[in-house]
Amino acid sequence: MKKFFDVIKEKLFVKKDKIHSEKYYRTVDFFNKYSLVFHALIAMTIVFAVEVISRRNFISACKFVDTHTLAFMYNSFLVFVSLALVYLFRRRAFARVIISGLWMILGIINGCVLSNRVTPFGYTDLKCIPELLAMDNTNYFTAQQATIVVIGLGSFALFLIALFIKGPRYSGKIHFAGTSVAFLTLLFVAIPVTTNVAQSTNIVASYYSNIAQGYDDYGFVYSFSSTVVDRGMKKPENYSADAIEGIEDKVNSQKQTTTVDGKTGPNIICVLLESFCDPDEINFLNVNKDPIPTFHSLEQNYSSGYLTVPVVGAGTANTEFEVLTGLSMQYFGTGEYPYKTILKQTDCESIASDLSNIGYATHVVHNNGGNFYSRANAFSQMGFDTFTSKELMNITEYTPNGSWPTDDILVNETMKTFDATPDQSDFTYIITVSTHGDYPKEPVIENPEFTVSGVDDEGMANAWTYYVNQLNASDRFISSLIDRLSKRDEDTIVVMFGDHLPTMGLKDSDMKSGDIYKTKYITWNNMGLPKEDADLYAYQLLANTTNKVDIHEGTIMNYHQTQMGTADEASYDEGLDLLQYDLLYGKRYSYNEADLYPASDLVMGIDKVTVTSAAESSTGDRVYVYGSNFTNWSKVYVNGEKANTSYLSASMLSIDRADVEDGDTITVCQVGSSDTIFRTSENEVTFHSEGAGSTESESSAE
Fold first, then answer.
1. First-to-last CA distance in the chain?
2. Which residues pair with 671 in a beta bridge?
3. Phi-psi region of 377 (alpha: psi -120 to 50; beta: other; left: phi over 0)
4. In this predicted model, what pLDDT tens digit does every residue of 35-44 receive, in sequence order?
5. Predicted TM-score (pTM) of this structure
């Protein structure tokens, strides 16, 4: 074996001078002379290979080249410019392989990501890789894919080391202060020029309302590069203190006075219905019977309408951002997720902070991970009081494909938010998941109640069958929620909306609305409010809702209440752009340059987690920890260190006896992805072994 490794070392990692033939040197001279031509060919090859990997389909990549030829050439130009950097180095082959390899690695990552989600790989995902890898039920990499990636990267690294040691070196003169630098400068200066031309001639787009479709139409290289350089908001040309003051004066001259407060105002519930679409809206789809009768009944009897959302098939967080803040995604860069960028370090006025100002308690309830889309951080930046994520819920039921918790658990968790603040009005934001994709193309529901026709492809017919049956489950959740609210003697208004259409390849022509960016919203109330239908943008939804119950609070909400529907649509959009920039990136002239809406001390969950005792098992190999409100995400911590924990029930956990010693302190924490501790037990206990004369620990309050 040692001899084998010695041979490998000598062959790959030991530099030896070698005299080559005249033909070899002529060949090298030929490639050097026409290197720009070969770089162009290499660039086109890389772009095509990346598209094959990203699309996971050779034919689809060929169609991209055929139908979007100029976009393909522009992608190739970007790779060509990056390859030109090799002219600054003597080890040009080494540099060329590194640059080519980086593009291929990015393409491979995108292919892996797209095999498990709809949204392509973007720059902001680089900040969330640990979170993505750790996400239960929503892994973006399978264990097999991760293993292949690790082996591939390791092999590539070894190859680079060998190439650096034994690879060829350019022997000619490098003109660092002359031709080489001038040529590179010209190429890099050409990028913004050619980009502007490409965008103005619609070869590529400057904004993706559907990021997945944008990557398909304009190519991975350009799209990913856009997510790197085109982030945040561009400063409006007329941004100034005077411009903001002018907008504020216009709003203040028209806004009404809030007539309720946190004791007299109605409860407001906002429900995000994941991937919810009315099957009647799809032209080709026929269902044997109505899967969403409750939804249709509410639509007929209470205010409703179309909702224009910023995404299709994925990107829930961006629709959510628009709804909760009243801000628009159209002013952000390509592939932007504000939750992962600006809200990582900047607080943001929202409906929660606006309602908190008049005494409301504000909550979020969501049966998925608290770290998904960085929500725990985002909801704190928005000013919410509590956030009950799946880590704080006793989830036992999952959808038929086993991927997502069912939504019925959200009804009781919502009631808890009301009961926890009996002396306050509540705003509770609910996020469902049971209609989330992917939708299996193999039958997974035996004898489904709802069946479809009008879909020729068997796999897609199975997917639609699964989807409409999950829509029925969502409809039952809506019915149960309204039923429970009807029994409470509290004024309440509910608004529910679809965040985007499902990932089913729907086109504008497939929809009765003629627009794949239109979902529906419905409402319910027990206050006798008149039915007033209106088609809205997602960022107008809650301004419209609060306006109906005489709540006129907040910089952005008041802007929408007073300015939407005005004749001058361009002026409305310009004002929103200015205010949005001012609040998120500017000097906050709207707040007199103060921080009026600081982040909240977000509390995870409503129920308190307690530990009452800990005792050895009868076999002596386990320790049982007793308490209350444990979930599958409860972990025992011994002296502050997490122990391998088994969930047995809402009142009992177990750990290995070897992990605890006599006198150790035990707490229980609710733990999210990346070992984020969301909540710690209200008390701790000190463990005493049976041999020490006690089978139970002593409890002490923190």
1. 59
2. 677
3. alpha
4. 788 889 999 9
5. 0.84
